[in-house]
Structures are given as C-alpha cells and as structure tokens.
C-alpha cells in the first residue's frame, strides 16, 4: 500500500514538473547492484521505497534544486554509493555522528546530505559543519509529498491556492464556466463520468458563474478513500471540459472562505485525502 502511494506521488510530480531535468529510471542491473551493496555493507535488504525512488529517476540530468525551500538535488545510485563509501571509510575525515546504515540520497553539493536510514526509513539531515542530525521526513512518502506540494504552489496561477491545504473533509469543490456553451455531447460525457443529472450538467455548461456550478461536498464522504474518489471525479470532469477547448473555473469553499484554484492542484488534493 505505501509503495503504491509513493509511486502515485512520484508520477504526479512528473506530470506537474516543467523545470527539473531528471535522469532516466535506473536499470534492473543498477538496482541489483544497489541491493547487493546494501546487503554487503549493512546486512540489510534494499527497502521497497528506495527501489521505487531509483526506478522513478536515477538522479538528475542537471544539478538543480528539487524544491524552492532548499537547494538539494537527487543523487544517482552511483553518486549515492560513492558518498556512502566515503563515510564508511574510517580513514576519511568528516564530522560525526554518521551511522553506517545512513545512505545519502540527496545533496546540496556542499558536503551536506539527506540520508535514508535503512532501519527506520526516516530521512535525516547530515550537515558537514553541524552535529545536529534531525529527522526531516518520516518516510520517502512524506518527502515526495513535500516536493509535490512545493511544485503545486509554484504552479498555482489562478488564486492563492491557500484553501487547497486546509482540511479536505471541510471542502466543497465547485466547477463552472465563465462563458456558457451548448454542448450536449459533452454533457453526456460528464454525466457518464460523474453520475450527475444531465439537466444539471447542461445548466452548468449553458450558463456562466458560480450559481450554476457543479458541486462536490467532501464533508458528505464516508471516509478518506471516498473523498479521494470524489476529487478524482472532479479531475476527470475538468479534464474532459478542457479537452473540448473550454476553460473551466475550479473553486474551493471551506467554512466561510472561498477561492479559485489552479485545476492542477486537484491532483495533490486527491492524494492529501489519502495521506492526511
């Protein structure tokens, strides 16, 4: 379950990313080499989430920051093992503490690393000139979610997208048009996707403004899986409208606040419903 969630987040990062140049996925031979080295050096089995990370991208093609909040980049398997070997060599000088089961996976290029704890799966900050070794992320899932949300914030153009980070169970999502259109074929397609009354859909398409919006109340969902499913439906409806050359407006209401959001933000919202 956790591995599938990580794969989904990484997939979403690829879909949203327009600026970061990643390297190709690791080959099976490269993954096997990493697994062999992990067993040899730590007597541990290569964790599934690490395998998933490198099968996603084996580092980056260009050394550039993954997040606007820090200047770290993803290491390749070769780079990761090279840095790990340096720390495991007792003849080398570096600031302790460094545990043998810490595998470097990200760096800022200044001898500082985010290391993966092969025992706990935590991601720990190693600083070359400070002794603090804080856990920055409890898992690769938490790290990937952090990267995804940062990309989502940078992509947000329509509105401030502040409410997208509020509690999903308090949200109502609305979809409407700024300029109405008569498109019965599209109405039937949306009816098939969302199961909403076709007259209600036709009214939304033929009108303009939020008064005719299609609405999904996430507070009425029975659980987080159902909330995520509803957001997925909204995504599909918005995508279908866009494919017809029509620009939909998506807004979120939470309590007494409402705002327009970038439709791309629905991707991270559906995930947040599953990983609060």
Please, how many helices? 9
Query: Uncertain spans, ≥5 residues at pLDDT below 50?
Result: none
Q: Helix/strand/pairing class, anyone?
A: alpha+beta
- Helical residue percent band: 40-55%
CATH homology superfamily of the largest domain: SMI1/KNR4-like
Instruction: Quickly give the CATH architecture of the largest domain.
Output: 3-Layer(aba) Sandwich
- Multimeric state: single chain
**Major β-sheet annotation:** 5 strands, antiparallel
CATH topology of the largest domain: SMI1/KNR4-like
Strand content: 15-25%
Secondary-structure map with pairings?
Elements: H1 2-16, H2 28-42, H3 48-56, E1 73-74, H4 77-88, E2 102-107, E3 113-117, E4 123-126, E5 135-137, H5 140-155, E6 171-177, H6 184-194, H7 198-206, E7 214-217, H8 224-243, E8 248-254, E9 257-261, H9 265-274
Helix pairs in contact: 1-3, 1-5, 6-7, 6-8, 8-9
Protein model, in words:
This protein is an alpha+beta fold and 276 residues long. 42% of the residues lie in helices and 16% in strands. It has helices at 2-16, 28-42, 48-56, 77-88, 140-155, 184-194, 198-206, 224-243, 265-274, and strands spanning 73-74, 102-107, 113-117, 123-126, 135-137, 171-177, 214-217, 248-254, 257-261. Strands 1-2-3-4-5 form a 5-stranded antiparallel sheet. Strands 7-6-8-9 form a 4-stranded antiparallel sheet. A hairpin with a 2-residue loop joins strand 8 and strand 9 (257-261).
